């Protein structure tokens, strides 16, 4: 069953995956080619570093974009038919949802693998200075795990009952509005808003992956 | 197990305007059960409840021995479903949807599926989104039949199909039922088609099951009488008087249920004469029954 | 032989099927030993409930016209010429009964019927 579901999501996401692979190949090539050389035929290290840092941002955007598209395409075919087909299949709803999630994660893994492979190849053919190394595997893993977070969030949103989602969003917005209002009247210091931001940006929190850098090349 | 589907006192209220209340229904195993009723009477909602797609608020539903929706996947493994509207993924081809479907059913019959595909003239590489109404109807029937189900649930399977396609779809259905003692629940407003293939009938109106019995009993049970000289007020009759309507002068037409020829003497005791007993076909019986149910006894 | 089976008719479908077979036997189209379509084939062809076909065959079996062989299909039994003429006669009576009932519904009496019949037969002879 999983293979069948994976096949359908692969078919629907194929063009995006191809595009993502092209971008995954373009980013490191661009970064390594644009960094200037020193006279001895190797890179000017500070410039190389800033190039790779820019590439890291590029990877993060790519991860976000691919995650969003794959999350939407996972459910697109079902939601246009009001999920009637999936509900008529002899499989528990949670199992089906889990398999769709797994298929999406697998597709993101393919893009991550492409990131790692192309990054590794580009770094291998570039004349790196002796103390710098390439970390294609680490990059690929960070990419994959980093993409899973926005993928999971949007996937969860699309899976839940639209009516419930509206209520949850309305509830959350109301709570925050109250928090901000109270703060503006000087009653509180907006503890909720502060707490949320701190939580999001704390090391180990959900946004950590996007706040650190995804460096292809490092010491 | 004598009944393939049993609903007991089912209640369900999807919105403010419509409710299914105290619905009890039984589809005997091996029957071809025709589900009749006007639009909006609750047939599709009942079907969704039977398939475990909605959870009833009251009562119990048992399908092929399994409680639904609690054990819905076990029941669905033995059910072939053809919904009113195309439910298959638009961006897959005929071949891809067949391979997808097959992955979920251990009982998939690949030979039969291929036979039906050829018989229905569906090509492997056709995209589901590009199929005509007839072709998508045939595809849904193909998928439903190829899993060798014990129960077929069909919601308007031939609606909007041209006569040729309709024959193909019905023939495939009848052939399957003849070969295997499968049960069929078919909801359709094409009453004459229902009349040919169904041996049981369930009539639904405004969320209630108004009649449920073997087809021949339903048809023979409801008749129209041509009566002359009946008094305006009548005592309780030995049959059910569904309605009276004047024809000309002293002549009236009565819709009756449970009429026996011997009851003619009761008529004569009221001072009336029976001019004619008219047999009704399924459509006329159905209309007669429902026009009464609405107006509460007189036309 | 099985065209125009009418579900709307007051004659049940199984009776219509049985009647067609009787007529075919009476006309000599079907004779002893001829095989009838299987229940599955006929039900599929006519798009009727298979139980209906079974009912028709069973009725004919009770009359001694048909033999249903377990696993081997259904066949016309020995049909003697006397049997055939009896079937023709009963089919004729059935046609006449229907005709008379229809005429009564339209309010056409025996006198008009006789006149019409004579006119038709004269026309046929010429």
Low-confidence stretches of chain B: none
* Residue-averaged pLDDT of chain C: 86
Q: Biggest sheet of chain C, open or closed, and with what strands and sense?
A: 3 strands, antiparallel
Q: At the first level of CATH, what is the class of the largest domain in chain C?
A: Mainly Alpha
CATH C-level name of the largest domain in chain B: Alpha Beta
How would you sum up this structure, described in words?
The complex is a heterotrimer of chains A (219), B (299) and C (126). Chain A has one domain (2-161, 209-218). Helices cover 77% and strands 2% of the residues of chain A. Chain A is an all-alpha fold and 219 residues long. Chain B folds into 2 domains: 3-206, 3-Layer(aba) Sandwich (Rossmann fold), CATH 3.40.50.300; 218-295, Alpha-Beta Plaits (2-Layer Sandwich), CATH 3.30.70. Chain B contains 10 helices and 14 strands. Chain B has a 6-stranded mixed β-sheet with strand order 6-7-8-3-9-10, sandwiched between helices. In chain B, strands 2-1-4-5 form a 4-stranded antiparallel β-sheet. In chain B, a hairpin with a 2-residue loop joins strand 9 (200-205) and strand 10 (208-214). Chain B is elongated. Chain C is globular and about 55 Å long. Classes of the chains: A mainly alpha (219), B alpha/beta (299), C mainly alpha (126). Chains in contact: A-B, B-C.
């Amino acid at each position: 069953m999983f293979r069948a579901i994976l096949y359908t999501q692969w078919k629907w996401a194929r063009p995006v995956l191809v595009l993502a692979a092209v971008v995954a190949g373009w980013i490191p090539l661009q970064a390594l080619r644009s960094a200037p050389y020193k006279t001895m035929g190797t890179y000017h290290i500070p410039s190389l570093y800033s190039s790779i840092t820019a590439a890291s941002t590029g990877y993060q955007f790519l991860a976000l974009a691919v995650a969003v598209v794959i999350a939407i395409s996972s459910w697109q075919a079902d939601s246009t038919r009001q999920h009637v087909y999936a509900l008529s299949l002899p499989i528990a709803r949670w199992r089906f949802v889990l398999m769709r999630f797994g298929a999406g994660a697998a597709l993101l893994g393919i893009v991550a693998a492409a990131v790692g492979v192309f990054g590794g190849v580009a770094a291998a053919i570039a004349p790196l200075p002796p103390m710098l190394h390439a970390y294609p595997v680490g990059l690929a893993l960070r990419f994959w795990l980093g993409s899973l977070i926005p993928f999971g969030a949007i996937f969860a949103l699309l899976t839940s009952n639209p009516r419930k989602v509206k209520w949850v969003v309305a509830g959350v917005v109301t709570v925050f509005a109250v928090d901000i209002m109270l703060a503006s009247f000087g009653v509180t210091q907006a503890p909720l808003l502060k707490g949320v931001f701190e939580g999001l940006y704390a090391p180990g929190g959900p946004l950590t992956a996007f706040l650190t850098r995804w460096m292809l090349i490092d010491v | 197990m004598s009944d393939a589907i049993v609903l007991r006192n089912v209640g369900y209220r999807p919105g403010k305007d419509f409710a299914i209340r105290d619905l009890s229904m039984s589809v005997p195993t091996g029957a071809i059960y025709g589900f009749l009723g006007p639009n909006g009477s609750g047939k599709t909602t009942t079907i969704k409840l039977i398939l475990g797609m909605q959870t009833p608020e009251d009562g119990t539903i048992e399908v092929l021995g399994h409680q639904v929706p609690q054990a819905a996947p076990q029941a669905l493994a033995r059910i072939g479903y053809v919904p009113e509207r195309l439910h298959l993924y638009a961006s897959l081809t005929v071949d891809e949807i067949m391979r997808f479907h097959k992955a979920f059913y251990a009982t998939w019959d690949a030979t039969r599926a291929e036979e039906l595909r050829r018989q229905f003239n569906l090509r492997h590489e056709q995209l589901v989104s590009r199929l005509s109404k007839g072709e998508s109807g045939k595809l849904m029937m193909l998928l439903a039949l190829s899993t060798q189900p014990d129960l077929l649930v069909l919601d308007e399977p031939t609606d909007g199909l041209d006569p040729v396609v309709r024959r193909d779809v019905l023939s495939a259905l009848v052939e399957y039922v003849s070969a295997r003692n499968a049960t069929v629940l078919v909801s359709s407003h094409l009453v004459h088609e229902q009349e040919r293939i169904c041996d049981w009938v369930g009539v639904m109106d405004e969320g209630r099951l108004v009649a449920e019995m073997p087809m021949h009993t339903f048809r023979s049970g409801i008749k129209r009488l041509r009566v002359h000289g009946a008094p305006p007020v009548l005592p309780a009759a030995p049959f059910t008087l569904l309605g009276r309507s004047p024809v000309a002068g002293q002549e009236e037409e009565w819709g009756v249920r449970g009429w026996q020829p011997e009851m003619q003497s009761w008529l004569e005791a009221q001072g009336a004469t029976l001019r004619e007993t008219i047999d009704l076909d399924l459509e006329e019986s159905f209309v007669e029954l429902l026009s009464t149910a609405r107006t509460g006894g007189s036309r | 032989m099985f065209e125009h089976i009418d579900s709307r008719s007051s004659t049940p479908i199984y009776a219509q099927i049985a009647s067609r077979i009787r007529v075919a036997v009476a006309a000599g189209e079907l004779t002893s030993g001829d095989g009838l379509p299987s229940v599955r084939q006929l039900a599929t062809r006519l798009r009727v409930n298979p139980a209906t076909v079974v009912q028709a065959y069973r009725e004919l079996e009770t009359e001694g016209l048909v033999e249903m062989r377990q696993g081997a299909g259904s066949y016309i039994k020995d049909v003697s010429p006397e049997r055939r003429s009896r079937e023709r006669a009963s089919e004729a009576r059935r046609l006449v009964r229907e005709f008379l009932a229809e005429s009564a519904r339209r309010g056409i009496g025996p006198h008009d019927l006789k006149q019409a019949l004579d006119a038709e037969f004269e026309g046929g002879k010429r």
